[in-house]
Structure formats: structure tokens, C-alpha cells
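Standup notes, structure subgroup. Blocker cleared on the zinc ion input:
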Amino acid sequence: MAEDKMDAKTQKTERQRARDYADAMSSLYIRKKDPVCFQCGSTRNVQCGHLFPRGLSLRLRWDERNLWSQCAYHNNIHEMNSKPMEAMVEILKGKEWLESLRAEMNEFTDLTNEEIREIGRKYKRMSEEL
Ligand SMILES: [Zn+2]
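Run returned:
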């Protein structure tokens, strides 16, 4: 694939670098917007948690509705058991909201590297505006 050249220095493909950039910029934005764990209120070591795992859906990987500030503890728990976080989101947003987002996870979406980079640039601008 001509579009996916390996970078000699980083040993990462263009696609991996686009994904890393969008991950970093969306995480920066979410943590700046909400600098506390939405489950316990902790401000220590806040991370950008994905309600539905980022590896499962390109559609939701950088969708703001899927991104929630979490402390390391709650983010780790979520990776092993998704139920507590889902239950908390359901309390905050409602069952219909949650199930509609879950349904979107299964809709196939493909993005070009440039579209992924544009998502990263969008989050960068948004975090600068906070
Ligand atoms: Zn927490």
C-alpha cells in the first residue's frame, strides 16, 4: 500500500503515526476539558478512557461521546470489566443514549490517513481553545 510507508526513524507506518497523533490530541482535549475521573472525581493521573474499546471501532475511537476522563485505576478496571463504566454512563446519559452509541460501534467506518490526521488537528485546535 503506497499510502502506508514506514518511517525509518520511528519504525512506524504512516497510518500508525496518524493514529498516534489523533489518539494523543483527542486524549489531550478530553483531559483538559474534564481534568477529573468521571467515576470517582480523582484528579490524579487522569487518562482518556474509551467507553467502547478503541480497537473495536474506528468510528468511535475519536468520537467525543466515547471518550471519558478516568483515573488510572478506573481505566484499568474498565479494560477488564466494562460493566461499571457502562453503568455510570447509563446513569449520566440514559439507556437509550448508551445503546444508540453501542449500535454505532458496529457500523463500519473507514478513514484515510489524512482524515485521521484531520481529526487530530481538530482536537488540537479544540484543546487550544479551552
Ligand atoms: Zn476514578
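Discussed briefly. Residues 14-33 form the longest helix (20 residues).
Next: hand off to the docking folks.
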